[in-house]
Structure formats: structure tokens, C-alpha cells
Amino acid sequence: MRKLLLLTAALAFAQPADAALTVGAQAPDFTTTGAIAGKPFKLHLKDQLKNGPVVLYFFPKAFTKGCTLEAHAFSEATAEFRKAGARVIGMSADDLPTLKKFSVEECRNAFPVATASPATIKAYDVVLKQKPELTDRTSYVIDRSGKIVFVHSDLDWSEHVAKTLAAVKSLKK
After folding, report:
1. Which H or E element spans position 79?
2. Which residues contact 94 (CB under 8 A, 6 or more apart)?
3. CB 128 within 8 A of CB 44
4. Is-contact 98 66, C-beta < 8 A?
5. Where are the beta strands (DSSP E) in the chain?
6. Structurally, how many domains does the chain consist of?
7. Can you give the three-state secondary structure of 101-138, one letter per residue?
8. Structural domain of residue 28, as residue ranges?
9. In b/e form, how buried is each residue of 81-115, taking b as 16+ CB within 10 angstroms?
């Protein structure tokens, strides 16, 4: 119990001050279309959570430098996320044809990417202030019950994988 309290306190401080969804908040449910390995599918967050925690990471735009590097990093770490019992899902405001191509070329068929609707973008408060038609770069770790257990919001892609993987691993302790 003490470890859980310490983990909750540590994760609360890891969250940016301007994040709309705070640790402990219920993650908004959504259904959308996505692609994995170039194949389209319907994605429902509630269904994904039945299999364990979800790393839901929002990225601004497919095929841009930072988003490509982040997708490569998540694809390289997919086995570690699976070993820890979590699924990775990338989301952006890109259309399905773009995401089908991105899922193959940059996500390397390792995890799904999905279209974030305006309602989902608003619900997760990931509107990129500089370009409102894009999503901010924010990663959430959502536990099986649908609670947010970790938030990392930073346009620099480089720490999203390491921080979300550490948060997922800490759930098993």
C-alpha cells in the first residue's frame, strides 16, 4: 500500500501544470478508426482497456520529423510495453489514408495509430495552441479501470517513450 501511495504522489508531480486531464481522472472513452500495418480497423478505448493498460500518445502530424522519430522510438519499445502488459496507441488529427501509410512506414507495423476527432482532441485537451488544427504532443498512461495514472506533455518527443514505459512498469509493482 505504501508503494502505491508513493507511486501516486510521484506520478502526480510528473504531470505538467497545464494538463487538462489529471492523474486520477477518468479517461474519456471514444470510438474512432485507425490503422495497424496499413489495415484499417475500428478502435474503441473501452475495448482496448479490457486487455490491460493503454499508452495513448497524441502527436501533431504524421511524417514530420519529431512525429516520425517518436513513432520509431515507440515501435522499438513495443515488446517492452507488451511485456509490461500495456498497449500503445498513437493518435493525431491526420486522416485515415495518411495514418494507414504512417502505420507501415514509421510505426513499422508495431502498434496502431488512429484519427483523433475534434471531440476527442477537446476531451483530452490536446489542441496545439500554435496550430489548433493539430494535436499537441501528450502521452497518457491509462490503467485497466480507465483512470489516468500518468501524463507527459512536451513537444520534444524524446522522453515520451521512456517516461510512459516507466509509468507502465510501475503499475506492476
Report:
1. helix 65-83
2. 61, 62, 102, 115
3. no
4. no
5. 31-36, 39-44, 54-58, 87-92, 113-115, 138-142, 148-153
6. 1
7. HHHHHCCCCCCCEEECCHHHHHHCCCECCCCCCCECCE
8. 2-171
9. beebebbbbbbbbbeeebbbebbeebbeebbbbbb
* HSE-CB for 105 with a 13 A CA cutoff: 11
> Is 107 in the active site?
no
Query: Which pLDDT belongs to residue 29?
Result: 97
Q: What separation, in Å, do the N-terminal and C-terminal C-alpha atoms of the chain show? A: 10
Q: Tell me the pLDDT of the chain (173 aa) as tens digits.
A: 434 433 443 444 344 445 469 899 999 999 999 999 999 999 999 999 999 999 999 999 999 999 999 999 999 999 999 999 999 999 999 999 999 999 999 999 999 999 999 999 999 999 998 898 899 999 999 999 999 999 999 999 999 999 999 999 999 86
Under DSSP, the state recorded for 51 is: T
Dihedral, CA of residue 97, residue 30, residue 49 and residue 26, to nearest 10? 140
- The C-alpha cell that represents 93 in the structure block: 488529427
Instruction: Identify the pLDDT of residue 5.
Output: 38
**pLDDT on residue 23:** 92
Of 36, 67, 84, 93, the catalytic one is: 67
Rounded Cα distance, 99 and 63, in Å: 9
- Residues, the chain: 173
